[in-house]
Amino acid sequence: MSIKIIQILSEEDIRNCFERKILEEKFEAHSVSVSQRMDLLLEVMGNPAIAYASDIPEEEERYEIIIDTFLSGVWRETSDI
C-alpha cells in the first residue's frame, strides 16, 4: 500500500465503511486511483483470491467486483477482525 495512502486512510477507516457512497467519497477526497482503491480493498479483506468467470476483465469491471465483494461483508465473516 502506498505510504501516502496509509497516512491518509488507515485500514480501519476503510474497514469501517459499510456504504459505497461514503467509501467512494473518502477515496475521491484523497485522489485515490482505481488501481490503488483495488489494492487497498484487497489488503483490508486479507488479500483474497478473486476469481473471474472468464478472461480478466477491464480495470473498472475488476474494481466493481472487488468493491461489491468488500461491501457484501463476506470477507468479514472469515477474517480475524
Summary, kept brief:
The chain has 81 residues and is an all-alpha fold. It has six helices and no strands.
Structure characterization notes:
This protein is mainly α and 81 residues long. It contains six helices and no strands. The longest helix has 14 residues, at 59-72. The model has no long low-confidence stretch (mean pLDDT 85).
Structural class: mainly alpha
Roughly what fraction of the amino acids lie in strands?
Answer: under 5%
> Major β-sheet, in short?
none
Output mean pLDDT. Answer: 85
- Give the terminus-to-terminus CA distance: 19 Å
Radius of gyration: 12 Å
Residue share in helix: 55-70%
By DSSP (H or I, 4+ residues per run), the number of helices equals 6
Topology pattern, helix = H, strand = E = HHHHHH
Spans where pLDDT lies below 50 across 5 or more residues = none
Coarse morphology: globular
By DSSP, the count of extended strands is: 0
What topology emerges from the helices and strands here?
Elements: H1 3-8, H2 11-15, H3 20-29, H4 34-44, H5 59-72, H6 74-78
Helix pairs in contact: 4-5
